[in-house]
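Support case: user asked for a sample of complex input and structure output to validate their parser. Sending the pair below.
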Amino acid sequence: MTFRIRELFGCIFSIFRKRKLDDDFNEEIASHIDMATEENIRAGMGPQEARRQAVIRFGGIEAARELHRDARGLPLIEKIMLDARYAFRIFRKNPGFSLAVVITLALCIGANTAIFSMLDALIFKPLPFHESDRIFVIYKSFYRI
Amino acid sequence: MTESKLDLLQGTLDLLVMRTLASMGSLHGYGIARRIEQVSGDEILLNQGTIYASLVRLQQRGWISAEWGTSDNNRRAKYYALTKAGKKQLAKETANWERLSTVITRVLSAQGEA
């Protein structure tokens, strides 16, 4: 189990070293493709074809970057952070729209809370008396004969 | 040709990478990918790039270590090696895999007798 804890710390740590880890991985990809190209040239391909084949064998470079990022970090939390940052940017770009949204939400939530508080006090909560279910209202009603 | 290659099961690439490092000592990502392709007789469909997700995961779990070094023809490359914890884990996972594959083979071949 200790490796899970280790891994978690590694993942958290790597979120804060994104730039360095990305650079590191880019260098690693370049070195991989260079080595593959060299081997292909030794096998008798022209330099251009050798490089092309090396890239094909590697599979999608961007896909590999994404896999690498997901494996080393906490993809869910990073995605949430990205979304939050995006939302914040959009809000700042459209202050009028943001204000309208905030006011709409505030009014709706406020109105709901007010109505619920009233209903809660009047209907849902028991009356503040001992054995309140034994309290009756007595009144007279007249029927038409 | 490509269609007849095997897709790797989830999680088995980690095992293959550890096994390769156990038998080859210290090796870079490209070397590991090539070695897996060769040993498998080119039967495994491997996008070489996916090996790096495996490597970073194993590294974070403390099963392999990584270090930049220079290759035979003076190229900079990141070299990976199995750690002590990694050796233990490899033994455990190999046993696990053998057990699983034996059971599955047994179940699959029992079909005819019933």
